[in-house]
Every structure is written in C-alpha cells, then in structure tokens.
Amino acid sequence: MFKKINFLVDEVKVSNQSFAKAINSNKEFGIRSDGEIDYDLKKDKAYIFKGRANILNKLEPLGKGYKIKATFVTVTISFENIWNHISEMNRVGAIYEDTASDGISEFQDKILEDIGWHGVEFKIGYRDMVEFLEKNCDGTIISIEQEEPYVFNGLGFIDDKNLEKARTTLFDFVKSQITENISKEKDEFEKYGFSDDQKDALSYFKIEVTI
Questions:
Q1: Per-residue confidence (pLDDT) for residue 209, from 0 to 100
Q2: Are 172 and 35 a contacting pair, CB within 8 Å?
Q3: Angle 45-47-49 from CA coordinates, rounded to 5°
C-alpha cells in the first residue's frame, strides 16, 4: 500500500544529528519524504528539499516556507505554501501526477504507460489503475489535500526496487478487467467486433477471444 503524505497537515521528522551534518556540510543534499537524507540524489525518491542550506539563516536554513522545530533527538519540518516548489522539484521522478481538476492522464514509466494506454481501449481508466496500484503495491504519494473546498494535487512514486512488481501487478489487473469487460459486453462485441486499437490491446495482453 502507498504511504500518503499531505503537506497541509503532515510533518517530516529527521534525525537531529543527520540534519545538522547536512546543513553544515556546504554540500547539496536532499531530504526525502521519509526523513532520510541523501547526498547522492535519486530519481525514484520523493524529496521535500533539494539544495544547499543557508546556515546564516538560523530560523529558515532550508528557505522560506520550511518551518523547523528541533529537539536533541529530531528535527521536525512542516510546510507553508510551498507545494508548487516541492511539486516542481519532484515532477521529473514521479510515476504519475494526480490533480482534482485534471485527474490522471498518463504514467511516466513507459511500461506502465503501455499497459495504461492499451487498457483505456476497454474502458479501464487511469483512475482505476492508480487506485489498484495504491492498494496493492509499495509506493509514496506526496500531496496537498483538503476537504472544504476540496483541493487535491499529488505525485505518485514507486521505488526502482518495487517497479517491476508494480508493472507485473498492473498488467495482470488490466488483463483480468479486459476479460471481464468483454464478457459483460459480449453481445455488443459479437455484433460490432473489435476496433483496430482494441485488437492491438488484445494482442498486447495475450488475450484470445472467440467471437
């Protein structure tokens, strides 16, 4: 199941020792959404911060909008009006982007996108596919979400080590849904047949149909 982080309410906790080392290093580093710090930034991770710290600014060493509370053990980071900055920073590594206004239109991973593109031909939407992935695979969603008025903007991530499983799991799910949809609409397909794109999808998923 995907871990969900809502930047309007959730905070990120970092080891005080690791945080102090990073901001005093004069090196570029990234703070991940799980609180780990990387000096070698990774494309498949969701980051709340990338760059060098400003050690001269004791109140906002990570920059404007990052609120820091420190104890001897942990540093707690909260966020204020910086979703656009965080989303722009992470968009290149996200598997998909999800917004209340536009929904989900594609996967950034080519193999997942091939599965999605073929699945759409049989009325299996990206929303259905993403909800399945979020329930059945390991990943992360970073977002801003509120109920009144409803706002949602999010980015989904799957670690490279979990990506192959996600591809296989989604392939099997979409294949089973196509088979089920054909069975439900058998009379229509017997009457009108399959479009060329639907035939391509059947070939892609290795589904044999006798209609």
A1: 85
A2: no
A3: 155
Quick check: 199 pLDDT over 80? yes
pLDDT at 148 over 90: no
Residue 101 has pLDDT above 90, yes or no: no
Three-state SS string over the chain comes to CEEEEECCCCCEEEEHHHHHHHHCCCCCEEEECCCCEECCCCCCCCEEEEECCCCCCCCCCCCCCEEEEECCCEEEEEECCCHHHHHHHHHHHCCEEEECCCECCCCCCHHHHHHHHHHHCCCCCHHHHHHHHHHHCCEEEEEEEECCCCEEEEEEECCHHHHHHHHHHHHHHHHHHHHHHHHHCHHHHHHHCCCHHHHHHHHHCCCCCCC
Residue 72 has pLDDT above 80, yes or no: yes
Cα gap 178→117, rounded to integer Å: 13
The domain spans of the chain are 2-89, 95-204
Q: Above 90 in pLDDT, residue 210?
A: no
Q: Taking Cα atoms as reference points, which of 47, 44, 2, 1 lies closest to residue 163? A: 44
Residue 78: how many other CB atoms lie within 10 Å: 15
